[in-house]
Write a structure and sequence with these properties.
With 460 residues, the chain is mostly beta strands. 13% of the residues lie in helices and 49% in strands. A hairpin with a 2-residue loop joins β19 and β20 (449-456).
Length: 460
């Protein structure tokens, strides 16, 4: 996705030209290889242009803040045609410099992306670090990350998330808000619905609008231990559904008798009285308990993190009342110089009703787990998943990661089948955009295919 060369300053500037070039080139329905050829041709041409002007058109400028003494290096040019390109270079080259002269340090990054869910897309993000007490150097920096994306498949997404550490770290609050429109697919409920074939028979192709709001506010009970209320809201509007069935099967006949479409069949109620609605709202209220000794919340090098959430989705407000328990554990430890071993285990369990709303079922593709699987490809009441990741920081602002993990989605504890565990593994590239805030590109491999993911911040 992004390539960084640090041998000479002029060569490093090529990275910025590559990002701009990816934005300029028109996104069309071409193969990935045709796009790569276009990008490569553009980059070679711009590289030659910069290098041909570098000897006479550039000079370095060292800027020292008169108050803080912070030093930042800028590359300047006398060539008017190249000034915008060098502005981009200086912006990105200095984006991760620690700014002690400001209380709020934010910036944008954008570029192309591709994965199996979105196809080719133009996306970007905004990341900022700030402090609720700049006189306390021990207080962890608060962070806000925003993102946007638009793809050739009709996906439009925008959202923001934040992690805030108040004065004295006595209180914390976290939030996440997103709005997404995307072509979706639903293979029904159960892990075996699309286990052997990603584009399996019997699926519903649709378009979906999702509105999500999640947040919590906690108080410190003891060192590293926090407790407080939590809200979890999700609204889904499903439209333009298309049934995809084997050639020898017809809706309204055989086992489909009495169901108007495949979605009704997938969402049939256990008592046979009908089906769940395709569009639903789910509002859960509850509490969260957190133990957190990480040195940095969104990119830890060491420490432990444990989170327990108990949510209730009351009937009346929700189509069906039920309970959810969500538990997560993570640890981080250094292995050798600039290498971190990260581990995550997660479980989400829905219970209390024979009917769990389909939009609240445990599924693949959530919370940075199961990278490479289509979002919601597998769904059921419960999920247990884990992943282990090696993170190696390299030269300049580059890093590499490799991970391996497994996911098991099941209806209840009596029906757990370890043979249906879904494997996931892959590798990725990291580039530090802000201090301890990375732009990541992950290539995940799964039992049913692979996918490239572009995002801001680590997966966990």
């Amino acid at each position: 996705m992004y390539y960084f060369i640090t041998v000479r300053a002029n060569i490093r500037c090529f990275f910025c030209i590559f990002v701009v070039g990816n934005i300029i080139i028109k996104v069309e329905r071409l193969t990935i290889y045709e796009h790569m050829k276009r990008y490569l041709s553009f980059c070679i041409a711009m590289f030659v242009a910069i290098m041909s002007n570098a000897a006479s058109a550039t000079r370095d400028s060292i800027v020292v803040d008169s108050i803080t003494g912070d030093v930042r290096k800028y590359k300047l040019t006398d060539n008017k045609a190249l000034k915008p390109l060098y502005w981009v270079y200086n912006y990105l080259a200095n984006s991760n410099k620690r700014r002690s002269d400001v209380s709020y340090d934010g910036g944008f990054v954008f570029g192309p992306a591709y994965n199996i869910n979105t196809g080719f897309a133009i996306g970007g993000g905004y990341s900022a670090l700030y402090s609720f007490d700049k006189n306390d150097p021990k207080l962890q920096k608060s962070i806000v990350n925003g993102f946007f994306q638009a793809s050739v498949k009709g996906i439009v997404a925008i959202g923001v998330e934040g992690h805030n550490f108040l004065k004295g770290d006595k209180q914390r609050f976290n939030y996440e808000f997103s709005f997404t429109h995307y072509p979706s697919a639903f293979w029904g409920i159960g892990c075996d619905t699309s286990l052997d074939n990603f584009y399996a028979n019997r699926m519903v192709s649709s378009k979906q609008l999702l509105l999500k709001l999640e947040g919590d506010y906690t108080w410190r009970l003891a060192k590293n231990l926090y407790f407080g209320p939590k809200i979890d809201f999700l609204y889904s509007y499903l439209y333009k559904t298309t049934d995809i069935l084997p050639e020898n099967e017809v809706m309204g006949e055989g086992k489909y008798e009495g169901y108007g479409n495949l979605m009704d069949y997938f969402l049939r109620l256990p008592d046979g009285s009908g089906s769940q609605p395709g569009s639903q709202l789910a509002l859960g209220l509850g509490v969260t308990l957190t133990y957190d000794s990480r040195d940095f919340a969104t990119n830890a090098y060491k420490g432990h993190y444990f989170n327990l959430q108990q949510l209730g989705f009351a009937p009346g407000i929700n189509e069906y009342g039920f309970l959810t328990t969500d538990v997560k554990y993570q640890f981080y430890t250094p292995l050798w110089k600039k290498c971190t071993l990260a581990f995550q285990a997660h479980g989400r369990f829905n219970y209390g009703n024979d009917v769990i709303p389909w939009i609240r079922l445990a599924s693949t593709g959530n919370q940075g787990m199961g990278r490479g699987y289509f979002y919601g490809q597998y769904r059921d009441n419960n999920v247990m998943e884990t992943q282990l990741e090696f993170r190696q920081r390299l030269i300049w602002r580059l890093g590499l990661v490799a991970w391996v993990g497994g996911i098991n989605i099941f209806h209840d504890f009596k029906s757990i089948d370890m043979k249906q565990t879904l494997p996931t593994y892959g590798f990725g590239v990291r580039w530090e955009f802000k201090p301890r805030v990375n732009v990541r590109v992950d290539w995940g491999f799964t039992k049913t295919g692979n996918s490239i993911v572009f995002n801001i911040g680590e997966a966990f």
